[in-house]
Write a structure and sequence with these properties.
mainly beta, 32% strand, 0% helix, two-stranded antiparallel sheet
């Protein structure tokens, strides 16, 4: 499913400021529940993302109908977002502030890449480079 405005040239890699690695859909899998973490940047579609400012959703370039999703709306520190069918629910809505990304429903938590190849995690926002993506 294509979303209005989601043309291929809108997708960009999310490079972590601390690790230099990119947010990556593991093994380029598009199935619901696919892992999302850090990996060496290589320019593949599994490392390209589009932030839809109207919906507040982060879409994978692998398939426009898969979004970053907080499983079961678990907004506890350490929870790991994954890929899931885009449905517009609150657990798929994020706020982009500068280079940080937070769930709309838990803006005290930020997407965090603790080390180069860790899974993404939601951790308390601290302004560190491991929570900044460009």
């Amino acid at each position: 499913m294509l979303h209005e405005g989601a043309w291929d040239d809108m997708f960009r890699p999310l490079r972590n400021r601390a690790t230099g690695t990119c947010v990556d859909v593991g093994r380029s899998r598009t199935a619901n529940g696919s892992d999302v973490g850090g990996w060496d940047c290589h320019g593949g579609r599994n490392q390209e993302w589009w932030y839809d400012g109207q919906r507040g959703s982060l879409h994978s370039a692998l398939t426009h109908d898969r979004c970053l999703d907080v499983p079961r709306g678990d907004y506890t520190a350490g929870a790991s977002p994954h890929l899931w069918n885009c449905h517009g629910g609150t657990n798929q809505r994020f706020v982009l502030r500068g280079e940080t990304i937070s769930p709309l429903s838990a803006q005290h938590l930020c997407l965090t890449l603790a080390s180069a190849r860790d899974d993404l995690a939601l951790l308390p926002c601290d302004g560190s480079a491991r929570q900044r993506f460009a």
